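Problem: given the chain below (378 residues), write out its structure.
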Amino acid sequence: MIPVSSPDITSADAEAVRKVVADGYISGRASPVRQFEKEFSEALFDSKRSVYAVANGTVALQLALESIPLKKGEPVVVPALTYSACANAILDAGGIPVFTDLDPNDSWCSGPKEMKEAALRSGSRIMMLVHLYGEPVRMTNLHNSSQTIIIEDCAEALGSFYHWDDWENPKAPEYCGSKPYTISCFSFYANKLFSTGEGGAVSCQRRFGCNAKEDKILRLCNNGTKDAGDYYPIISAHNMRMSALQAALGTSQLQRMDATIMMRQAVMDLYTNQLDGVIKTTNKERCPRPWMFSIHVPGVQREAEKFLKSEYEIETRRPFSVLPTCSPYMKYSGGKDFPVAEERSKSWLFIPSSPILSTKDQKRVIEGIRAFVKAGGD
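Solution.
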């Protein structure tokens, strides 16, 4: 079976973890954690942002909300089509999710128009943007007030750039999560660009430029204290730290991030070239660096999934469910429908997109898709 995603773990990664174990750095905010935070900030943000390594991407979102701080019962605008972690983080932090539909222009994201309309309707001062499946949200005109607080969920957009017309400097591309006015959150789960197994990070501009106090984020994830040896908590908080073992793995993988991006891009380019004219695929203009590659199978999503698995031993993945149609979140739908999100959720299928996908396996995926289309599947 060709997996839809596989982590790229090398012997160098294993050696980095072994060394940490041998040195005894296995718990708390040990030096490998601080080293990972430093190198992550250098690689993505030219050291202009503080980075806090945490247990996973979900708690990264929760910490971002609590650091604002989010008031009990306060509304937070969030896309209807996203991973459940977004809604769960809002609820765990004491807020109420306000769902919004997607940009209808062939996009996986809720755009500025949808987000701002939902904020106006609900009176929300907080927006949780999701760069879904590697597609960057268009940021134009979103931050129009010092009272607007923006959290960027970059879990699937690590290594993706903002759209060129959102760059502060047209000559210098900017990674998603780097805007000075946002709090950005990342995930390092096994299927991400690089992985620490579980793990995540919260980042904000240095000197409190993002409405989140750096000191508070650190205390929130460290049981109310600042660092190892500090046993005087000043706030009630959590233990959401990343372990030193995870940090060592992340630092090792970070060294080859650019090479991994190029490997993934090569996979995407081959799909684009070979499937052009065969089936509608990921919109390269809107999503130049997709996290996963998708094919359009309206009305036959389940049939395509079954065919590729049974006939070609290819694992695929459906998009996320539309959250306000799921039982835990129905009461937050506001009686609204989300037609664009519904259509995209039921009409697309993600195919194997790992950066270490072999050319042989990728050709089998392409062959399987061609066979499905020829059989009248699309």
